[in-house]
Amino acid sequence: MALLDIIKLRTQFPSQDGMVKAVDTVDLLVAEGERLGLIGETGCGKTVLGMSIVRLLQPTTSIEGKINYKGRDILKLKEEDMRRLRGKEIAMILQNPTTSLNPVLKVGDQIAEAIRLHQGLGKREANARAIEMLQSVHLPDAAANANQYPHELSGGMRERVMIAMGLACNPEFIIADEPTKGLDIKTKMQIVELLREATLHKAMLMITHDLGVAGSICDKIAVMYAGELLEEASSQEILNDPAHPYTQGFINSLPSRGLLPIPGTSPSLICPPSGCRFHPRCRMATKTCEMKHPEMVQIEKGHLVRCHQFN
Ligand SMILES: Nc1ncnc2c1ncn2[C@@H]1O[C@H](COP(=O)(O)OP(=O)(O)O)[C@@H](O)[C@H]1O
Ligand SMILES: [Mg+2]
Question: Is 51 touching ligand 1 by the criterion CB < 6 Å?
Answer without folding.
Answer: no
